[in-house]
Amino acid sequence: MAYFTTRVELHGASAADYTLLHEKMEAMGFTDTIVGDNGVRFKMSPGEYNFEGTATIEQVGLAAKAAATQTNRNWAVFVSEAVKRSWEGLQII
User: Fold this and answer.
1) Which domain holds residue 30?
2) DSSP label of 31
3) Are the C-beta atoms of residues 49 and 25 closer than 8 Å to each other?
4) Which end of the chain is more exposed for a tag (fewer CB within 10 A), N or C?
5) Can you give the CATH number for the domain in which 31 is found?
């Protein structure tokens, strides 16, 4: 299984645009949470998403772009495949 962190920025967007983005990202299999090695679930920073699966980085990028395009805003997408991830200060949920 591969793990991806994806950041989506919508240019000139409102809160409603980001709500729509979140719905579209979830429909594509992304979540805005991440689970630590200890099983604790954390909320990722706004605009950041987690994807876990057998997809390639290119496929994950295409899915994120498809979701962002549905907001009718200009957007930027960044995808990285992780071997290990570390974080501090994220909200426990």
Assistant:
1) 2-92
2) B
3) yes
4) N
5) 3.30.70.2360
Domains in the chain, number: 1
* CA–CA distance, 56 with 86 (Å, rounded to integer): 22
* Contact (Cβ atoms closer than 8 angstroms) between residue 7 and residue 77: yes
Give CB contacts under 8 A, 24+ apart, made by 21-25: 21/67, 21/68, 21/70, 21/71, 24/66, 24/67, 24/68, 24/70, 24/71, 25/49, 25/64, 25/67
Mind listing the pLDDT tens digit for each residue in 29-68?
999 999 999 999 999 999 999 999 999 999 999 999 999 9
Q: Which residues pair with 51 in a beta bridge?
A: 4
| SS3 (DSSP) at 6 | strand
**Whole-prediction pTM:** 0.91
Asked if residue 82 lies in contact with residue 5, where contact means CB atoms within 8 angstroms, the answer is yes
CA distances from 12 to 4, 19, 49, 93 (A): 26, 14, 20, 29
